[in-house]
Write a structure and sequence with these properties.
Helix content is about 25%, strand content about 25%. By secondary structure, the protein is of the alpha+beta class. An eight-stranded antiparallel beta sheet has the order 3-4-8-9-12-15-16-17, covered by helices on one side. Strands 1-2-10-11 form a four-stranded mixed beta sheet, with no helix packed on it. The relative contact order is 0.15.
Length: about 325
């Protein structure tokens, strides 16, 4: 879940908060850069070195290239091409997109449809606080016909959407692979210590000034506060929450994580955090847990070997799995 937007320093090193580093934060020997990718702010932090600037630029270039493949909001993306060809034909997909689509398909089967990228068909929602929009019940009923993950067909290196009007949304499964691609570029350029953080997901390598990276976890019950802090060297923190993109209308709050079966925002779970060494182990799990609800979400999280996780339900209870209770430190 997103980190609090202040920055806290302690004797153990840097506490990343707000999933972004404060623009005014100045640490000797640290180079940072921030840009907007996939509709969210992404921050990159590395110890300063002669080749750090060129490595950072190369990492941004690769992440931007992959974003252009997978963004549903870019008319030139392959995802947009898929939408235009829905029910008509297939699109040849590069390995990066195929890998994400296969991960999505496997997770959809594993969660019995709790995770479903064809949820993109519910495009009547707007979570822009300046122009919020809630679709009518009739709109959702009509769009529901187009939601079925099995109708996203992968045939060799080609992909097609089986029915006209289908749309996919890779927001829940593409971000971590894109951030991972940026980290791999940094490593290829000899950068052994780095953090990339964007929209609730954090990847780390090595340390900062000899100290493990510290990642603060935002409390979905009170987003201005922190639940606690985890330290991380080589690994990732992935999160989902109901508080970041939302609006209130007629006394009710609506958020952007939609239930594929209804098109309405999920209920029962406020936020999920997963800590793992490998991004593939947790990719898409947070969204699936929010759709499935507390019981199914906790069962899913408990089935993940080597993953420490946390779920906050709508009753305000905090549930942990794995070693999360032991590794969560006070902020």
């Amino acid at each position: 879940m997103n980190l609090h937007r202040r920055h806290l320093l302690s004797g153990l090193g840097l506490l990343v908060a707000g999933w972004s580093l404060h623009p005014g934060l100045a640490l000797a020997g640290v180079r940072r850069d921030s840009r907007v990718l996939m509709g969210t702010r992404v921050d990159m932090v590395v110890p300063d070195a002669p080749d750090a600037a060129s490595a950072i630029e190369a990492a941004w270039a690769e992440m931007q290239r992959q974003e252009r493949l997978m963004s549903r909001y870019r008319s030139e993306s392959l995802v947009s091409a898929l939408h235009r060809q829905a029910g008509r034909g297939s699109v040849q997909a590069p390995p990066e997109l195929l890998a994400v689509l296969r991960q999505a398909a496997a997770l959809s089967e594993r969660t019995r449809g709790d995770f479903d990228i064809s949820v993109g068909a519910y495009d009547g929602w707007s979570f822009d606080p300046a122009q919020p929009r809630r679709p009518s019940a009739q709109e959702l009923l009509e769009e529901r016909r187009l939601v079925n993950h099995r109708d996203v067909r992968i045939e060799g290196d080609r992909v097609r959407l089986a029915r006209p009007g289908m749309r996919i949304d890779l927001g829940g499964v593409a971000k971590l692979p894109v951030l991972q691609a940026g980290m791999q570029v940094l490593e290829h350029h000899g950068i052994r210590h780095a953090m990339i953080n964007g929209g609730g997901d954090v990847l780390t390598r090595g340390q900062l000034h000899g100290q493990d990276w510290r990642v603060g976890l935002r409390d979905p019950r009170a987003p201005e506060k922190l639940l606690g802090v985890v330290t991380l060297r080589d690994g990732c923190v992935a999160s989902s929450g109901d508080y970041e993109r939302s609006f209130r209308q007629a006394g009710r709050r609506y958020h952007h994580v939609l239930d594929p079966r209804t098109g309405w925002p999920t209920e029962g779970v406020r936020g999920v955090v997963l800590v793992a060494r490998d991004t593939a182990a947790v990719n898409g799990i947070g969204a699936a847990a929010m759709v499935g609800g507390p019981a199914r979400g906790l069962d899913l999280m408990a089935s993940l070997p080597g993953v420490d996780s946390l779920l906050v339900d709508t009753a305000g209870e905090v549930h942990t799995r794995g070693r999360m209770a032991q590794r969560l430190q006070a902020a």
